[in-house]
Amino acid sequence: MDNTAFVCQYCKESLYGKKYTVKDDNPYCVKCFESLFANICEGCKKPIECDSKDFAYKESHWHEACFKCVKCSCSLVEKPFAAKDDLLLCIECYSNEYSSKCFNCKATIMPGSRKMEYKGCNWHETCFICQSCQQPLGTKPFIPKLSSLYCVPCFENQFANQCKSCKKAITTAGITFHDQPWHSECFVCAGCKRNLAEEKFTSKDEEPYCLDCFSNLHAKKCSGCPKPIVGQGGGKYISFEDRQWHSDCFICAKCTISLVGQKFLTQHNEIYCPKCGHDI
Predict the structure, then answer these.
(1) Cα–Cα distance between 236 and 51 in angstroms, integer?
(2) Where would a tag sit more exposed on the chain, N or C end, judged by fewer CB atoms within 10 A?
(3) Which residues pair with 41 in a beta bridge?
(4) Measured CA distances, 95 to 73, 107, 108, 111, 196 (Å)
(5) Residues 64/43, Cβ–Cβ less than 8 Å
Protein backbone atom coordinates (compact mmCIF):
# COMPACT_ATOMS: atom_id res chain seq x y z
CA MET A 1 0.00 0.00 0.00
CA ASP A 2 1.21 3.50 -0.81
CA ASN A 3 1.45 5.19 2.61
CA THR A 4 1.60 8.61 1.00
CA ALA A 5 -1.97 8.16 -0.32
CA PHE A 6 -3.64 8.28 3.13
CA VAL A 7 -3.46 12.02 3.69
CA CYS A 8 -5.71 14.84 4.89
CA GLN A 9 -8.00 15.92 2.09
CA TYR A 10 -7.21 19.57 2.84
CA CYS A 11 -3.58 19.96 4.04
CA LYS A 12 -2.31 16.72 2.42
CA GLU A 13 -0.38 15.70 5.52
CA SER A 14 -0.18 11.98 6.19
CA LEU A 15 -2.82 10.68 8.59
CA TYR A 16 -0.99 7.49 9.56
CA GLY A 17 -0.61 7.33 13.34
CA LYS A 18 -2.79 10.47 13.79
CA LYS A 19 -6.39 11.18 14.79
CA TYR A 20 -8.62 12.02 11.87
CA THR A 21 -12.28 12.20 10.91
CA VAL A 22 -14.22 11.60 7.73
CA LYS A 23 -16.65 13.87 5.93
CA ASP A 24 -18.31 12.97 2.62
CA ASP A 25 -16.03 9.91 2.43
CA ASN A 26 -12.93 12.08 2.62
CA PRO A 27 -10.46 11.95 5.55
CA TYR A 28 -9.38 15.13 7.36
CA CYS A 29 -6.92 15.75 10.13
CA VAL A 30 -8.53 17.07 13.30
CA LYS A 31 -7.12 20.56 12.88
CA CYS A 32 -8.39 20.97 9.31
CA PHE A 33 -11.77 19.42 10.05
CA GLU A 34 -12.37 21.75 12.99
CA SER A 35 -11.31 24.83 11.03
CA LEU A 36 -13.39 23.86 8.00
CA PHE A 37 -16.49 22.10 9.29
CA ALA A 38 -16.84 22.27 13.08
CA ASN A 39 -20.07 23.89 14.34
CA ILE A 40 -19.68 27.08 16.33
CA CYS A 41 -21.03 26.91 19.87
CA GLU A 42 -23.83 29.43 20.57
CA GLY A 43 -22.59 29.74 24.14
CA CYS A 44 -18.85 30.34 23.94
CA LYS A 45 -18.66 31.05 20.16
CA LYS A 46 -15.79 28.54 19.80
CA PRO A 47 -15.72 25.55 17.45
CA ILE A 48 -17.13 22.30 18.82
CA GLU A 49 -14.18 19.89 18.66
CA CYS A 50 -14.38 16.47 17.07
CA ASP A 51 -14.12 14.71 20.41
CA SER A 52 -16.76 16.92 22.08
CA LYS A 53 -20.46 16.27 22.23
CA ASP A 54 -22.47 18.52 19.94
CA PHE A 55 -25.90 19.50 21.34
CA ALA A 56 -28.16 20.82 18.61
CA TYR A 57 -31.51 22.64 18.70
CA LYS A 58 -33.03 23.73 15.41
CA GLU A 59 -29.99 25.04 13.50
CA SER A 60 -27.91 26.00 16.53
CA HIS A 61 -25.21 24.03 18.36
CA TRP A 62 -23.66 24.00 21.84
CA HIS A 63 -20.83 22.36 23.75
CA GLU A 64 -22.18 20.12 26.51
CA ALA A 65 -20.94 22.57 29.14
CA CYS A 66 -22.51 25.50 27.28
CA PHE A 67 -25.92 23.86 26.84
CA LYS A 68 -27.54 25.61 29.81
CA CYS A 69 -30.29 28.03 30.83
CA VAL A 70 -29.40 31.61 29.94
CA LYS A 71 -31.00 32.85 33.16
CA CYS A 72 -30.06 30.48 35.98
CA SER A 73 -27.17 28.67 34.17
CA CYS A 74 -28.40 25.21 35.12
CA SER A 75 -27.53 22.45 32.64
CA LEU A 76 -30.23 21.55 30.12
CA VAL A 77 -28.66 18.20 29.21
CA GLU A 78 -31.39 15.54 29.30
CA LYS A 79 -33.85 18.06 30.78
CA PRO A 80 -36.92 19.69 29.26
CA PHE A 81 -36.39 23.28 28.18
CA ALA A 82 -38.13 26.06 26.26
CA ALA A 83 -36.90 28.68 23.82
CA LYS A 84 -37.67 32.40 23.77
CA ASP A 85 -36.20 34.62 21.05
CA ASP A 86 -33.66 31.86 20.24
CA LEU A 87 -32.54 31.75 23.87
CA LEU A 88 -32.83 28.54 25.88
CA LEU A 89 -34.34 28.51 29.35
CA CYS A 90 -35.15 25.77 31.82
CA ILE A 91 -38.85 25.21 32.35
CA GLU A 92 -38.85 26.95 35.73
CA CYS A 93 -37.24 30.15 34.43
CA TYR A 94 -39.38 30.19 31.31
CA SER A 95 -42.53 29.80 33.40
CA ASN A 96 -41.55 32.58 35.80
CA GLU A 97 -40.65 34.97 33.01
CA TYR A 98 -43.05 34.26 30.17
CA SER A 99 -45.79 31.76 31.02
CA SER A 100 -49.29 33.07 31.60
CA LYS A 101 -51.03 32.75 34.94
CA CYS A 102 -54.31 30.90 35.37
CA PHE A 103 -57.16 33.37 35.89
CA ASN A 104 -58.77 30.97 38.35
CA CYS A 105 -56.02 29.49 40.53
CA LYS A 106 -53.36 32.17 39.74
CA ALA A 107 -50.70 29.48 39.28
CA THR A 108 -48.38 29.38 36.26
CA ILE A 109 -49.60 27.53 33.20
CA MET A 110 -46.58 25.41 32.37
CA PRO A 111 -45.34 25.16 28.76
CA GLY A 112 -46.93 22.22 27.01
CA SER A 113 -49.94 22.21 29.33
CA ARG A 114 -53.42 22.46 27.86
CA LYS A 115 -54.96 25.83 28.47
CA MET A 116 -58.16 27.71 27.64
CA GLU A 117 -58.26 31.32 26.49
CA TYR A 118 -61.14 33.81 26.67
CA LYS A 119 -60.99 37.59 26.21
CA GLY A 120 -57.26 37.84 26.86
CA CYS A 121 -57.29 35.64 29.97
CA ASN A 122 -55.98 32.10 30.34
CA TRP A 123 -57.08 29.13 32.42
CA HIS A 124 -55.72 25.67 33.09
CA GLU A 125 -58.07 23.31 31.29
CA THR A 126 -59.04 21.85 34.68
CA CYS A 127 -59.74 25.36 36.06
CA PHE A 128 -62.00 26.41 33.19
CA ILE A 129 -65.21 25.37 34.96
CA CYS A 130 -68.70 26.61 35.73
CA GLN A 131 -68.70 28.81 38.84
CA SER A 132 -71.89 27.13 40.06
CA CYS A 133 -71.78 23.39 39.29
CA GLN A 134 -67.97 23.20 39.01
CA GLN A 135 -68.23 21.09 35.85
CA PRO A 136 -65.60 21.61 33.08
CA LEU A 137 -66.77 23.99 30.38
CA GLY A 138 -64.39 22.73 27.69
CA THR A 139 -65.95 23.68 24.36
CA LYS A 140 -69.49 23.88 25.77
CA PRO A 141 -71.43 27.17 25.45
CA PHE A 142 -71.09 29.37 28.53
CA ILE A 143 -72.16 32.80 29.74
CA PRO A 144 -69.87 35.26 31.59
CA LYS A 145 -71.15 37.32 34.50
CA LEU A 146 -68.83 39.78 36.20
CA SER A 147 -65.57 37.81 36.60
CA SER A 148 -67.14 34.35 36.63
CA LEU A 149 -68.22 31.87 33.96
CA TYR A 150 -71.38 29.79 34.03
CA CYS A 151 -72.69 26.93 31.93
CA VAL A 152 -75.98 27.83 30.27
CA PRO A 153 -78.25 25.75 32.57
CA CYS A 154 -76.69 27.20 35.75
CA PHE A 155 -76.86 30.76 34.42
CA GLU A 156 -80.51 30.35 33.49
CA ASN A 157 -81.37 28.89 36.88
CA GLN A 158 -79.62 31.65 38.81
CA PHE A 159 -79.85 34.80 36.75
CA ALA A 160 -82.24 34.59 33.80
CA ASN A 161 -85.73 36.07 34.07
CA GLN A 162 -88.45 33.49 34.57
CA CYS A 163 -91.50 33.66 32.35
CA LYS A 164 -94.61 34.55 34.39
CA SER A 165 -96.64 32.02 32.44
CA CYS A 166 -94.47 28.87 32.04
CA LYS A 167 -91.93 29.69 34.80
CA LYS A 168 -89.03 28.78 32.50
CA ALA A 169 -85.96 30.94 31.83
CA ILE A 170 -86.13 33.63 29.16
CA THR A 171 -82.88 33.37 27.21
CA THR A 172 -83.81 35.51 24.21
CA ALA A 173 -86.02 38.55 23.74
CA GLY A 174 -89.34 38.49 25.58
CA ILE A 175 -92.15 40.82 26.58
CA THR A 176 -92.57 42.82 29.78
CA PHE A 177 -96.13 43.33 31.00
CA HIS A 178 -96.98 44.80 34.40
CA ASP A 179 -93.26 44.59 35.24
CA GLN A 180 -93.33 40.82 34.67
CA PRO A 181 -91.31 39.01 31.96
CA TRP A 182 -93.00 36.69 29.46
CA HIS A 183 -91.82 34.56 26.56
CA SER A 184 -93.25 36.00 23.37
CA GLU A 185 -94.97 32.70 22.66
CA CYS A 186 -96.44 32.59 26.19
CA PHE A 187 -97.98 36.05 26.02
CA VAL A 188 -101.53 35.05 25.03
CA CYS A 189 -105.03 36.30 25.62
CA ALA A 190 -106.47 35.05 28.94
CA GLY A 191 -109.75 34.44 27.13
CA CYS A 192 -109.19 32.92 23.68
CA LYS A 193 -105.43 32.13 24.11
CA ARG A 194 -104.53 33.99 20.92
CA ASN A 195 -100.92 35.20 20.86
CA LEU A 196 -100.70 38.91 21.68
CA ALA A 197 -97.02 39.51 20.94
CA GLU A 198 -97.77 41.80 17.99
CA GLU A 199 -101.44 42.56 18.70
CA LYS A 200 -103.25 45.40 20.43
CA PHE A 201 -104.45 44.29 23.83
CA THR A 202 -105.74 45.50 27.15
CA SER A 203 -105.84 43.97 30.62
CA LYS A 204 -107.93 43.25 33.67
CA ASP A 205 -106.72 41.97 37.03
CA GLU A 206 -103.17 41.78 35.58
CA GLU A 207 -104.29 39.39 32.84
CA PRO A 208 -103.87 40.36 29.16
CA TYR A 209 -106.86 40.18 26.82
CA CYS A 210 -107.32 40.72 23.13
CA LEU A 211 -109.78 43.52 22.42
CA ASP A 212 -112.55 41.16 21.37
CA CYS A 213 -112.39 39.07 24.53
CA PHE A 214 -112.10 42.08 26.79
CA SER A 215 -115.11 43.70 25.11
CA ASN A 216 -117.19 40.55 25.44
CA LEU A 217 -116.13 39.67 28.97
CA HIS A 218 -115.29 42.84 30.85
CA ALA A 219 -115.95 46.08 28.96
CA LYS A 220 -118.64 48.49 30.14
CA LYS A 221 -121.64 48.70 27.84
CA CYS A 222 -122.56 52.03 26.31
CA SER A 223 -126.07 53.21 27.20
CA GLY A 224 -126.36 54.93 23.85
CA CYS A 225 -125.30 52.11 21.51
CA PRO A 226 -124.91 48.35 21.89
CA LYS A 227 -121.12 48.45 21.55
CA PRO A 228 -118.81 48.00 24.56
CA ILE A 229 -116.59 50.78 25.84
CA VAL A 230 -112.92 49.75 25.55
CA GLY A 231 -109.79 51.59 26.53
CA GLN A 232 -108.42 51.87 22.97
CA GLY A 233 -108.56 54.82 20.61
CA GLY A 234 -108.31 57.38 23.40
CA GLY A 235 -110.62 55.52 25.77
CA LYS A 236 -112.80 58.56 26.60
CA TYR A 237 -116.27 57.91 27.93
CA ILE A 238 -118.93 59.62 30.03
CA SER A 239 -120.14 58.13 33.29
CA PHE A 240 -123.28 59.19 35.13
CA GLU A 241 -124.60 57.32 38.14
CA ASP A 242 -124.26 53.66 37.13
CA ARG A 243 -124.39 54.19 33.36
CA GLN A 244 -121.68 54.92 30.76
CA TRP A 245 -121.64 56.36 27.24
CA HIS A 246 -119.09 56.69 24.47
CA SER A 247 -118.29 60.36 24.11
CA ASP A 248 -119.88 60.32 20.65
CA CYS A 249 -123.00 58.65 22.04
CA PHE A 250 -123.58 61.16 24.85
CA ILE A 251 -126.17 63.20 22.93
CA CYS A 252 -129.67 64.60 23.43
CA ALA A 253 -132.20 61.85 22.73
CA LYS A 254 -134.33 64.34 20.80
CA CYS A 255 -132.16 66.87 18.94
CA THR A 256 -128.95 64.76 19.02
CA ILE A 257 -126.75 67.68 20.08
CA SER A 258 -123.61 66.58 21.98
CA LEU A 259 -123.98 66.92 25.73
CA VAL A 260 -120.28 66.42 26.51
CA GLY A 261 -119.38 69.21 28.93
CA GLN A 262 -122.94 70.58 28.81
CA LYS A 263 -125.85 70.59 31.24
CA PHE A 264 -128.39 67.84 30.63
CA LEU A 265 -131.60 66.34 32.02
CA THR A 266 -132.55 62.68 32.46
CA GLN A 267 -136.01 61.26 32.04
CA HIS A 268 -137.10 57.64 31.62
CA ASN A 269 -133.47 56.51 31.13
CA GLU A 270 -132.98 59.06 28.36
CA ILE A 271 -130.82 62.18 28.41
CA TYR A 272 -131.86 65.53 26.97
CA CYS A 273 -130.46 68.97 26.54
CA PRO A 274 -132.16 71.50 28.80
CA LYS A 275 -134.30 72.90 25.98
CA CYS A 276 -135.64 69.54 24.81
CA GLY A 277 -136.02 68.35 28.39
CA HIS A 278 -138.33 71.28 29.24
CA ASP A 279 -140.41 70.71 26.10
CA ILE A 280 -141.25 67.14 27.05
Answers:
(1) 108
(2) N
(3) 61
(4) 15, 10, 7, 7, 60
(5) no
